[in-house]
Amino acid sequence: MSLIYCRTFIFLFLIGILNISASELPKGPNDKPDLNGVWQVLNTANYNLEAHSASAAMDLVVGPVVPIPHPSILALGAVGAVPAGLSVVEGGIIPYKKEALKKRNENKEDWLQLDPEIKCYLPGVPRATYMPYPFQIFHSEKAVFFAYEYAGAVRNIYLEDQGEAPIDSWMGQSWGYWEGNTFVVEASGFNDQTWFDRSGNFHSDKLQVTERFTLLNNHTMNYQAIIKDEEVFTKPWKINMTLYKRIGKDAQLQQFKCVEFVEELLYGKWRAK
Amino acid sequence: MNKSFFIAIIAILLASNIGAEEGWSNSKTWFGDPDLQGTWTNASLTSLERPDSYETLAVTDQDAKIAIKVSNEFVESVDNPYEEGESPQAGDNVGGYNVAWMDPGTELFKIDGKYRSSILTYPEDGKLPRRYIRWGLEGYGIYKMFAVADHPEERTLGERCLVGFGSSGGPPMLNVLYNNHYQIVQSPGYVMILVEMNHDARIIRLESNHNPNNMKPWLGDSIGTWEGNTLVVRTKNHHPQQKFRAGIRHQILIMEEAEITEKFTRINEKEILYQFEVNDDKAYKDTWRGEMPLRAADGEIYEYACHEGNYAMANILAGARAEERK
Amino acid sequence: MAGFLYSEPYITAKTWFGDPDLQGTWTNSTLTTLERPSNFKTLIVSEQQAKTAALIASKGNDVYDNYLKEGETPKKGQDVGGYNTAWMDPGTKLLKIENEYRSSIIISPKNGKLPWDAKKRREYFSKDARRKFKRTDHPELRGVGERCVVGFGSSGGPPMMNVLYNNNYQIVQSQGYVLIMAEMIHDSRIIRLEGSHLPQLMDPWMGDSIGRWEGDTLVVETTNFNWQHVHRAALRHYFAISKNAKITELFKRISDTEILYRFRVDDPSLYKSAWVGEMPLRAQSDKIYEYACHEGNYAMANILAGARAEGK
Questions:
Q1: Fewer beta carbons within 10 angstroms: which end of chain B, N or C?
Q2: Same domain for A169 and A59
Q3: Which residues of chain A neighbour B36 with C-beta distances below 8 Å?
């Protein structure tokens, strides 16, 4: 009998500890975990979701001995080089269909011409999350809104399912709901113009993304995205990474409206002589 | 407790409802700030400056009806410039958007139950107190925006897809030909105003300081405080390329050093009273002030992916180069 | 590889979180070379032999530093020379383990020589894309030291070898990690304790190291070697490590001032059998200077430009 009491006590004690841990999460509206803040990843997923060694550039051409940076990148030196990173894809590899994998590799070969990030186009989902720029979540009882520093991209997460998107868009249409302490976002209605990273990983306009934002404590959040696109992949696949809250006086979302920075790139050839 | 104390309490309660309609009491956000959240529009037939056909700020219902009639006639002419079967002649203006794409407003807006002939409330004549010398100095640059296509940086902000034309994003936030929507979301320490054009998020930092003067972001640097139920936003350090802001019905200059104050007061469930004051000594002889309602909008805001679909810029420049070769 | 057996067991102090403490600044400079020179017939040599070796080395330094008489200058075409020995750190005596001088770092094979498999070596190198070039054609063909990518001669390892200079290492430990900073080229080997190796496609310089404690001995396994780091050449040794190699290192503190460092190279792409070496890392009281090789690398530009000037 005393063993049963002992076990019961231990069980209740553990429950108590878990409850204490959950209650340490900062509280937001409707008593849900507070997602507010300026957030940023600290990984290299935007270079390549899959594992990658460091290399001289995103776009390499045949060199006399080893591949060398494309002439357009050469002058950047180490600034244009690529850091190494582990895969953020569960299972390591993105499960492309055979033809789609060919297209991914073609994309990668022609990165300079094809990556929408270079032209400052809207980044799409989930790429917006792991760009090397922060974003700010405005989490109120009426709305959950993401303002991204990169290109001033925005996402208003509807709090009710709006049904099918009336039109395709770069950032898609998202609606969100809570599952316990996790904010789940269902996004769809994407066009096929965005990439998942700089390595040519892409999707069709049938893309659907389910994102899960789980606050771990006041400073970190777990981010998972489940990607479904029957035209491109053999099955749905997941990515996982951590979001870190920026703190301190300089934790302020700045402006990176890069459209003006690419005017020379896009229109320079039509300047008056 | 004495009578004076109760009077003081009542006075405070009344004061906090200044501008609010009778019977309206401000709801609060989950963290206790007055709630301005929602999707809003400032589309209306009322223009920034008072047209010469109006003599006063407040106008009659009859005047308002006439304004609607004139607007409808204009809209009809835009959508039906040709007879059945007729088409443009070579060299004719091929036209632009159908009215279906526009959102110029359907009537003059009302404040305190009265239609308004201008957004401007000061100067009292409803006209901008321009320093014409400044306009002269900026004139060549402005001329080039419309008449010359040498370089993309010299074209208008709207064509460049940098920010919405006509000060749509502000400050001050003005109504333009289309996409007159704003979404306001609040969180502790912040008020975020999403401007439909060009999907710009104005992030107003509450109880904060301005950033250093060498940081001049697009839409300026805004900080805010609450005065009772009114959000007071102060903006300075405007982007040097954002000086000239033109819509069909207004053209303004906002110099880098201008100081702009905006006030947002929710006056009922479906309206925010939006007031602004512009102090810009370089471009104007005097302060100018205006007000308009932001009205609750139906539906959600579409994505405004201007840059991603910007065929126009390439074509404008390429066209100019083709003309030069003739 | 057998563990360490010593006559006088040493009780290693612990770090603040309870791991055996290997921390400090260490040197592996010594006159003992990787392979056994032909004048030595056995691994263990006598005190007299050791003294002779030290004397020869010392005299050699004198000759090197003073090869020109007073007022004499190099003749045209003569080697202009390089560093004075003041810049060098070749060691002053043979290494000692358990009070015995050693003639080679290699302890297995017993002959103290590298067990090359000539056929496999030819086959491996024949696939190296660099073979078709002259060494002055391109920067990628120069040695890793001239390129300033990692220290020459396997200074940073693994295995970590003694070379002409900069034979210093700093070890710092924190929970779950052992850091070995090799002086050349300020390279931090971060050994992940109880970790897993990176995917095969990732091949960092110095390979990918994971470690575990066996008692007071740190056991480190390294794989995923970079294909460009195959040649490990110094004045006194040359060996090769293919990208398929696995290297196991043992670090055990044997006194306040010494760590015994033993390594085993398993590389069937190049060798007939595994080979094992050991040497002490001796405590250094000095601090390590910055080694900003690339930032001062005039040599590479001059080597290539010189070759171009000569019409090569």
A1: C
A2: no
A3: none
Query: Same domain, yes or no, for A226 and A148?
Result: yes
CB contact under 8 A, A260 and B318: no
User: What's the whole-number mean pLDDT along residues C12-31?
Assistant: 94
Residues A77 and A182 in one domain: no
Instruction: Give the helix/strand (H/E) hosting C170.
Output: strand C168-174
Amino acid at B266: R
Token reading at C202: 């990732």
Are the Cβ atoms of A65 and C138 closer than 8 angstroms?
A: yes
Place of tokens 């700030």: B33
> Measured between alpha carbons, how far is residue C222 from residues A206, B31, C28, C90 in Å?
44, 54, 20, 27
Same domain, A154 and A181: yes
- Does residue B213 lie within any of the structural domains? yes
Cβ-Cβ contacts under 8 Å, C202 against chain A: 51-53, 84
Residue C210 lies in a domain: yes
Q: pTM, whole model, 2 decimals?
A: 0.86
| Summary mean pLDDT of chain A | 91
What is the side-by-side order of every strand in the sheet holding C96-97?
Answer: C44-45, C100-102, C96-97
User: Do A41 and A76 fall within a single domain?
Assistant: no
Question: In total, how many domains does chain A have?
Answer: 2
Q: Do chains B and C touch (3 or more CB pairs under 8 A)?
A: no
Q: Which of A34, A154, A247 to mutate to test the interface with B (most CBs of B within 10 A)?
A: A154
Q: Using one digit for the tens of pLDDT, what is the confidence trace for B296-310?
A: 998 889 999 999 999
In a domain, B90, yes or no: no
Q: With touching defined as 3+ CB pairs under 8 A, do chains C and A touch?
A: yes
Q: Give the 3-state secondary structure of residue C210.
A: strand
Please indicate, yes or no, whether residues A71 and A164 belong to a single structural domain of this protein: no
Question: Is residue A208 located within the same domain as residue A120?
Answer: yes
Q: In terms of pLDDT, which residue wins out, A66 or C222?
A: C222
Which of A138, A162, A170 lies at the smallest CB-CB distance from B305?
A170
Q: What is the pLDDT of residue A7?
A: 59
**Is the pLDDT score of A119 beyond 70?**
yes
Cβ distance of A51 and C201 shorter than 8 Å: yes
Q: Does residue B321 lie in a domain region?
A: yes
pLDDT band at A19 (very low <50, low <70, confident <90, very high): very low
Asked if residues C188 and C194 have their Cβ atoms less than 8 Å apart, the reply is no
Total domains, chain C: 1
Q: What percent of chain A has pLDDT over 90?
A: 84
**Which of A34, A60, A85 finishes a domain?**
A85
Among C187, C202, C206, C208, the residue to mutate for chain A (most A Cβ within 10 A): C202
CATH code of the domain containing A234: 2.40.128.20
Tokens of B95: 């036209």
Helix (H) or strand (E) holding C219: strand C217-223
- Mean pLDDT to the nearest integer, B248-259: 96
A69 and A10 in a common domain: no
The whole domain housing A72 covers: 52-85
Q: Rg of the Cα trace of chain C?
A: 20
Spell out which residues of chain C touch residue A86, defining contact as CB-CB under 8 Å: 198-199
The answer to whether residue B257 scores a pLDDT higher than 50 is yes
Q: Is A219 exposed, middle or buried (0-12, 13-18, 19+ CB in 10 A)?
A: middle
Q: What is the reported pLDDT for A16?
A: 47
B312 to chain A: which residues are within 8 Å by CB?
A: none
Of A65, A66, A92, the CB nearest to C199: A92
Question: Is pLDDT of A1 > 70?
Answer: no
The residue range of the domain holding B134 is 38-76+100-325
Strands (E), chain B: 38-41, 58-59, 110-111, 114-116, 120-122, 181-187, 190-195, 200-206, 221-227, 230-236, 244-246, 251-253, 259-268, 271-279, 288-296
Residue C245: which domain range? Answer: 113-311
Mean pLDDT of A213-227: 97
Q: Is residue C177, in this structure, part of any structural domain at all? A: yes
Q: Identify whether B232 is part of a domain.
A: yes
Domain count, chain B: 1
